[in-house]
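Subject: for your reference before the review

Hello V.,

The reviewers asked for a structural picture of the protein, and I figured it would be easier to keep everything in one thread rather than splitting it across files. Below is the amino acid sequence we used in the manuscript, unchanged from the supplementary table.
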Amino acid sequence: MPKSGTGGDAHHLSSGRDFVFNTVGGLFSFRSISSLSSLASHTDQLVISPNGNATLRGTLTQNSDVRWKKRIATLENALETILNLRGVTFAWKDTGREQGRQIGFIAQQVEKVLPELVATDENGYKSVAYANIVPVLVEAMKTQQKEIHALEAELKDRDRQQARIERLEAQLAALLAACEPGKR
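And here is what came back from the structure prediction:
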């Protein structure tokens, strides 16, 4: 594969489809040959910018078929897990990255809560598999929804009890008024 910035090198691959990797001006793009046009056009299949940002034309999917998995279990304590994560805003120190306010996690903090989501490279730098937090969020939402339903049921029960108390108080007041001397 050519290095970034080699000025227009295009490499063709063949695996039943024809694609081109293009590295003009430090921009790495991947497009089908039938859509060759200007650099980083709307027809590029994948564009990786020199600052590390990537744009994919289409949907990124990950293997998830049950036939590839074993020891499947529902996540436990998902809500508690999410509550132990800390979302942050930050700016990159590296000026070669996209500047401005960013949103994310600190990998070292995520590693303490969900070590499965953190990878460490050969230099000790850590990265987070952000998409893999979605199943934890789903299970946390289910837990919250169960809690909400339980609270709603409790509130309805309290409303019924309050209405009964108010009816009994009205009946008691009427009885007491009927029993007062001089009211007969």
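For the response letter, the relevant points are probably these. The two ends are 105 Å apart (CA to CA). Strands lie at 10-14, 18-22, 28-32, 46-48, 54-56, 88-90, 102-104, 118-120, 126-128.

Happy to draft the paragraph if you're swamped.

O.
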